[in-house]
Amino acid sequence: MISEIQILRDFLMPPVLGYDKDGCPVRLVQVGYQDIKGALCCVRPSELPKYIVWFLDTDKEEMRKRSRETGIHIDKRTFIIDLDGLNLMHIYRRDVYEMALASLKLYENNYPENLKVAFIINTPSFFHYLFNMFKPLLSESTCERVKIYGNSGWKEAILEHIDADLLPVVYGGTRTDPDGDPNCPSLVKILNPIPTELYLKNMNTLSEDDENVRKITVHSRSKCSIHLKVDVPGSTVGWEVECEKNDIKIYLVHTEGSKYEVVVTPVTVYSDFGSEAGCYLAENTGIYSLVLDNTYSIFTAKQVLCKFYVSTVTSKMSHVFKPILSENNNS
After folding, report:
1. Interval 276-301 mean pLDDT
2. How far apart, in Å, do the first and last CA atoms of the chain sit?
3. What's the pTM value of the predicted model, to 2 decimals?
4. Which of 108, 135, 171, 194 could crosslink 38 through cysteines, CB 3.0-4.6 Å?
């Protein structure tokens, strides 16, 4: 099965056009016509930082390689970020805002000195409002390296930094695809729409026909717990949870006698991502409870499909399911 990181890498990785006049790698990021909603259905929020780090570290390795080849120390990168086609429907989503926020924080906290210049071009009329929202996250040095343009003036500015033979014709250069296409679709990949078969919810879903799957209604402002007893230290407690057309918060608690401890911190399961799988190595015996928490929802009851199991090496890793649903609102 194709991984989330592989989907982002193979379908959404912005291309390296080459190197600017100072030898810095140049990446072209086409935002406006990408299927942003579809992309977010292909990767869990927890995986996005890993992709961003991998992407930025790839460039750092490219800089080190270029430095060895040229004998000139290169430690900065250049971006062309094209917002042509971006509209409010792209950004009026909580997950889009959270992704942008997380990306900026990660970049500013770990890679600020690697930015030479970022040309943000074809900005829509509402962009300055958005930029002012995120600007407090950026250092003064980073802000000075960000050059913002509308629909004109940017080609001349970019050509001061980058040779024309590296840039596609539509970006003011002379580069075309082998068939003469000035948009260079072989280089600038736009997958719109992203095939739904790549969505996580289509890769990993639970079925009500599975005898081990329980369907549970978690009412608004309440929570339910599924309990499982662990008799053998070192057993693995595992679960799969899917929330239909909504989201639900889940966490794992351990109870032994009068002791109560949260052993897996809360995580939110979104319907866009199919089932959320997890496991915990139970070093202690006792009762382990998977809590389905909907206390944050004022009006909406949630339909949840779930599996919960314990496995031990003594059972040759066969999964023995013993779910018991607690009907009250206590963990």
Report:
1. 92
2. 35
3. 0.66
4. 194
Backbone angles phi, psi at 12, to 5 degrees: -125, 0
Q: Which two tokens stand for residue 25?
A: 């790698």
Angle between helices 94-110 and 127-134 (to 10 degrees): 50
Kind of pairing, strands 146-148 and 115-121?
parallel
Kindly report the backbone phi and psi dihedral angles of residue 97, in degrees, each rounded to the nearest multiple of 5, phi listed first: -60, -45
Contact (Cβ atoms closer than 8 angstroms) between residue 158 and residue 172: yes
Distance CA 34, CA 29 (A): 10
- Secondary structure (H, E, C), the chain: CCCHHHHHHHHHCCCEEEECCCCCEEEEEECCCCCHHHHHCCCCHHHHHHHHHHHHHHHHHHHHHHHHHHCCCCCCEEEEEECCCCCHHHHCCHHHHHHHHHHHHHHHHHCHHHEEEEEEECCCCCHHHHHHHHHHHCCHHHHHHEEECCCCCHHHHHHCCCCHHHCEHHHCCCECCCCCCCCCCCCCCCCCCCCHHHCHHHHCCCCCCCCCCEEEEECCCCEEEEEEEECCCCEEEEEEEEECCCEEEEEEEEEECCEEEEEEEEEEEEHHHCCEEEEEEECCCEEEEEEEECCCCCCCCEEEEEEEEEECHHHCCCCEECCEEECCCCC
Is the per-residue pLDDT at 315 higher than 50? Answer: no
Provide the 10 A C-beta neighbour count for residue 48: 21
Lowest model confidence (mean pLDDT) among 144-148, 173-177, 205-209: 205-209
Q: 286-293 and 223-230 as β-strands: parallel, antiparallel, unpaired?
A: antiparallel
Asked if residues 240 and 276 have their Cβ atoms less than 8 Å apart, the reply is yes
On average, the pLDDT of the chain sits at 83
Task: Give which of 63, 72, 125, 130 is closest to 96, Cα–Cα.
Answer: 130
